[in-house]
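Quick illustration, no need to memorize.
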Amino acid sequence: MSHPEILSERRAVLSDHVEPHAAAGGVAPVAAMGWPRWLHRLYAWTMAQASRPHALWLLALISFVESSVFPIPPDVLLIPMVLAAPHRAWLIAGVCTISSVAGGMLGYAIGALLFGTIGAPILEFYGYMDKFAEFQASYNEWGGWIVFGAGLTPFPYKVITIASGVTDLSLTTFVIASVLARGMRFFLVAALLWYCGEPIRLFIERNLGWLTVLFFVLLLGGFLVLRLL
């Protein structure tokens, strides 16, 4: 059996589990699920943008700024882009990974530069440099794992990129951990979407409301964990 036939068979099996009763035009009848119309319009708009030529540039921009200042993760565009063009899944994941790591290096630079010009003098004035040195040693001891965990999970990655610059974590360690974590995250998402294909798209459309709630719960949960640390 050829590779396309195997994928087709697997997707057919997955389809049985998500009840893909699509409406005319190829979009599942999500409006009947009771979720706000604006949410479905936003989803339809995002899907339309994902198939346009400028989508890769927009994804690169979002991935870059999310790693240092922007609060919304690039998955919001990565997922519909892969669903809209599964044959470009690896290119999309690669652009997302490279841009995210580059943005992380900007966050690292922000932490390093701002600490040197603003943070350090304040700590010296209040006599807290010794305590900071203890924190720095503790952070750098586990820094690679911290960066890896933040890059792989919903935890705000930007916070760790800046903190790594502040504590002067080895740049080599930071880059390696970032490449591994962000690459695993984005390529895993792309692989799952490519492998499952249309059933996943129909599942998202039929459960858009709950998935949106889950997305924001995870996002806010990451910031809450940050405040509790």
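The radius of gyration is 21 Å.
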